[in-house]
Every structure is written in C-alpha cells, then in structure tokens.
Specification:
The chain is of the alpha+beta class and 115 residues long. It folds into two domains: 47 residues; 64 residues, Trypsin Inhibitor V, Chain A (2-Layer Sandwich). Helix content is 41%, strand content 23%. The chain has two helices and five strands, in the order αβαββββ. The strands form two sheets. The protein has a three-stranded mixed beta sheet, with helices on one face. Strands 1-4 form a two-stranded antiparallel sheet. The chain starts with 9 loop residues before the first helix and ends with a strand. The mean pLDDT is 86.
C-alpha cells in the first residue's frame, strides 16, 4: 500500500524518521558529554593550591594583611568601633586559624577602631 501524497510506503517513512531522530539524539548526547568533560577538566586543572589559614588575632592590621597576602589569601577588613582591644588590632578572623582553604580565598579580619 503506497501513500497518495508521497508515493512512499508509510513503514519506510517511519524508519527513515527514526534513523534521523536517533542520529540527532546521538550528536546532542556527544556534545553534552564533551561540554561536561571540558567543565570537569577545567575545574580540576584550574583549582587553587590549598593552604592553611594563619592565626592573625592579636596582630596589627598591617602584620595580619602581610601574613595573609604572603600565603596567597585575600584580605577583607571589617571595622569594629569601640572594641576593648587597642586600636588597629585584629580581634577576630574568619575562617579560623588552621582551616584549609584554596588560594585566593578571602579571609575576613575584624579590626578595632576608635569611634
């Protein structure tokens, strides 16, 4: 039995459509896998070196900044007005000393300030 419009048999038309759909599905699947593999490789090869956070509590802001930057870490200063410690002294740090982080992780230091 042939189709009036195309002259082809419906069964052949269905097989051809199925082959094309399977081919496109395979191409798309391979592209998705390639992108995923590229993302995993990028994360693996570009990750930062691990380093332990030094203890900077009780040091001056300048000493703390130098110590943290020497270890490849970024410094974020938070001012603490009217702290009981002398002005310019680090009162707190986050993450804690001894924590393992990847370079260039930001370390927040709270520094006492006069009001």
């Amino acid at each position: 039995m042939t189709s009036v419009v195309s002259g082809r048999r419906p069964q052949r038309l269905m097989k051809s459509w199925l082959k094309r759909a399977l081919w496109w599905f395979t191409v798309v699947l391979l592209l998705v896998l390639a992108f995923a593999a590229g993302g995993i490789a990028t994360c693996y090869f570009t990750r930062g070196e691990r380093v332990a956070v030094p203890n900077v509590v009780g040091k001056t802001e300048r000493e703390a900044r130098q110590l943290l930057e020497r270890n490849g870490l970024r410094v974020v200063v938070i001012d603490v007005p009217d702290a009981p410690e002398p002005v310019g002294t680090v009162t707190r740090q986050n993450p804690r000393a001894g924590s393992i982080v990847r370079k260039p992780f930001p370390v927040k230091i709270s520094v006492s300030r006069a009001r």
